[in-house]
Description:
Blueprint: H1 2-31, E1 78-86, E2 97-101, E3 127-131, E4 137-143, E5 154-160, E6 167-173, H2 183-186, H3 191-194, E7 198-199, E8 202-203, E9 212-215, E10 218-219
Parallel strand pairs: 1-9, 1-10, 6-7
Antiparallel strand pairs: 1-4, 2-3, 2-5, 5-6, 8-9
Amino acid sequence: MRQANRRSRTWLSRRAMMNGVVACAALVGFYGRAPALAALGATPQQGEGPFYPVHLPLDSDNDLVRVSGVAASAQGTVTHVLGRILDRIGRPISGARVEIWQCDAKGRYHHPGDRRGMSPDEAFQGFGATVTDSQGAYRFRTIRPVPYPRRTPHIHFAVLAPGYERFVTQMYVAGEPDNVRDRPLNSVRDPNTRARLIVALDPAPGIEDGALAGTFDIVL
């Protein structure tokens, strides 16, 4: 009787182990990775702000430094912002529309609501859009963001991805002294979560002489 019980327990143990292996294999096949990997931390949402374009510019590609029909280039330091749009388990989201908008090098937005005295830099596009590729990758050529009254340097992002609601956030620049005082940035209380919005912009001579570059991945 005892031998029968031992054989029964051994069979059940082996069966449970095999069931676990089969379940794990099924999940790996579905997700493309082992389920033991921790989920990615979602990018914090941020407010859209008052300066999303009333009318999208005719030239609204992913190069904000050059405007069609304008001979000059935008004032400011050319900056390449690149990254990927991902879901919470790290899968790339292809076909997502990514939009950015920001003030020009003088701190003025191309928006009728920005009524400060200086005229905008007409050689700066102010708004750009692109679509992610099969790897979820996007890229923009813009300028290093600058501060304006009560705000640290930042770039606004909006993502319209298939199967998701419109997602809005902001990208901030590492090392900016006003980061510690910026209200929208510090509305994200947890420092580790807040760090997901802050990007180092480093010299990138391999991309373009005199330009900076930074990577901003967005996890929906």
